[in-house]
C-alpha cells in the first residue's frame, strides 16, 4: 500500500521544501519508489530537483481546477533514481478551483495507477490555512513537521496541531504525527535548546526526531537544483537527512507490525 506523507508547518520558512526534496531523494536511493507532489505555489520542491513546469503543462493544482484530472499526466521524472515530481502551479490562487471538497486530492492519490507506480508519496504543503493544506492532511497517512527551533516556528507547530486534531476527528481518523523535526539546529545555541525542551514537554519527547543541523550546503544544493546527497554527499546535511530516512523507515515498519497477542 502506498504511504502518503505530508510535510507541514503553519509557519512559512520552516524547512518544508528542503525536507521534502532531501527526504524524497533519500527514500528513492533506498529503493522506495517515491513521488514528490509540490502543493506550495512557490514551487520550491520542484525546483529542488530542477523541475520547472512548462507553460500550460499539467501541475499538482490541476486536481482542483480540472474535473476528472489524471494526476499521472503531471508526473515528471528527475535525475535521482526512484524519484518523480509533480510541480506546482505558481499562478494558482484558488479563484479558479472547481472542486473545493476535502477529498479532491485523496481521490487522485489513492487511485490504483498511483498505487501501482509508487511506494511513497510526499506532499510539500503550503503554510496557509486553505483548502490545499486541508486536502493534503485529509489524504495523508502521516504528518512530518519541520520546525526551526525558535518561538515563531513553535507557534506554527501549535497551530498545525489544532488543525491536525480537527482533520483527524472528522475526515481522516487514520492520520498520525510521524514526528517533529528540528531544522537549522544548533545545539550550542541556548534558545534552540530551550525551544526544543519546551516542544518536547508539550508534545512528548518521543515525537521529537534527531534533527537537521545548520549546513550551508543545503542552501547551495537548492541553488544547484539538486538534493544535498548528490551535491555534497559528505556534508552534515546529507548525513542528517540520511538519518531521518532511517528514522522514518523504522517508524513505518513499527506502525505496520501486527500488535502482540497479550490474551494468553
UniProtKB/TrEMBL annotation:
CDD domains: ParAB_family. Residues 3-176 form the AAA domain. Signal peptide: none annotated. It comes from the Bacteria. InterPro entries: AAA_dom, DNA_Partitioning_ATPase, P-loop_NTPase. This is Chromosome partitioning protein.
Amino acid at each position: 500500500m502506498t504511504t502518503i506523507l505530508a510535510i507541514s508547518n503553519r509557519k512559512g520558512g520552516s524547512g518544508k521544501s528542503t525536507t521534502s526534496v532531501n527526504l524524497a531523494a533519500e527514500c528513492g536511493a533506498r529503493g522506495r519508489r517515491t513521488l514528490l507532489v509540490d502543493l506550495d505555489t512557490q514551487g520550491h520542491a520542484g525546483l529542488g530537483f530542477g523541475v520547472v513546469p512548462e507553460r500550460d503543462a499539467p501541475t499538482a493544482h490541476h486536481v482542483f481546477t480540472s474535473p476528472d484530472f489524471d494526476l499521472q499526466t503531471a508526473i515528471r521524472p528527475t535525475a535521482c533514481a526512484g524519484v518523480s515530481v509533480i510541480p506546482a502551479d505558481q499562478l494558482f490562487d484558488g479563484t479558479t478551483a472547481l472542486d473545493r471538497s476535502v477529498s479532491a486530492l485523496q481521490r487522485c492519490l489513492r487511485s490504483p495507477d498511483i498505487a501501482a507506480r509508487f511506494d511513497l508519496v510526499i506532499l510539500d504543503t503550503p503554510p496557509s490555512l486553505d483548502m490545499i493544506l486541508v486536502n493534503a492532511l485529509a489524504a495523508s497517512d502521516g504528518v512530518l513537521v519541520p520546525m526551526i527551533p525558535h518561538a515563531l516556528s513553535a507557534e506554527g507547530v501549535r497551530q498545525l496541531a489544532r488543525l491536525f486534531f480537527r482533520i483527524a476527528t472528522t475526515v481522516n481518523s487514520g492520520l498520525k504525527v510521524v514526528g517533529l523535526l528540528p531544522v537549522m539546529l544548533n545545539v550550542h545555541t541556548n534558545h534552540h535548546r530551550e525551544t526544543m525542551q519546551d516542544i518536547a514537554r508539550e508534545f512528548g519527547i518521543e515525537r521529537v526526531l534527531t534533527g537537521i543541523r545548520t549546513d550551508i550546503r543545503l542552501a547551495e544544493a537548492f541553488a544547484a537544483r539538486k538534493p544535498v546527497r548528490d551535491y555534497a554527499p559528505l556534508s552534515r546535511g546529507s548525513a542528517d537527512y540520511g538519518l531521518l530516512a532511517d528514522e522514518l523507515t523504522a517508524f513505518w515498519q513499527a506502525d505496520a507490525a501486527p500488535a502482540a497477542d497479550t490474551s494468553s
